[in-house]
Amino acid sequence: MLQEGLCGPRVTDIASRLNTTPATVSRRLKRLEDDGDILGYSPRLARKGTVFFVLVRGRVAEHELAGLSEVQEVHACGGNWGFLLKVRVQDSGSYYRFERERLQPLGVSVESVPVYKTFKDK
Questions:
Q1: Under a CB-based contact definition with an 8 Å cutoff, are residues 22 and 29 in contact?
Q2: What is the mean pLDDT of each run of 10 residues along the chain (122 residues)?
Q3: Which CATH architecture has domain 50-114?
Q4: 102 neighbors 112 (Cβ within 8 angstroms)
Q5: Which residues of 43-81 are buried (b: 16+ CB within 10 A; e: fewer)?
Q6: Is there a shared CATH topology between the 1-45 domain and the 50-114 domain?
């Protein structure tokens, strides 16, 4: 549910910080949502595990890649590669199994880069 954006702001906390009523905050948030300025709400979860950026080449549809639970992002890219994936797994051994058991059966070739440290992630 959290990944689907089914969490929202705590109106009472916002109202308290702004020294206004919860009803006022609710009306303003509703207006911003209706105007398309707020597209949804999502939590900022602690990032655990190891990230790999993976370049993918081969005949595969983006929905096949997006359907893999370890894949957090799928980007179409230029050059000799078709897609760039952001993959989050528990550790390097988990990535090895992911590549062998989930990517290779799709008939693609990959080049992966492990992330050692992230300095900015929104």
A1: no
A2: 57 89 91 89 74 95 95 93 95 96 95 91 74
A3: 2-Layer Sandwich (3.30)
A4: no
A5: eeeeeeebbbebbbeeeeeeeebeeeebbeebeeeeeeb
A6: no
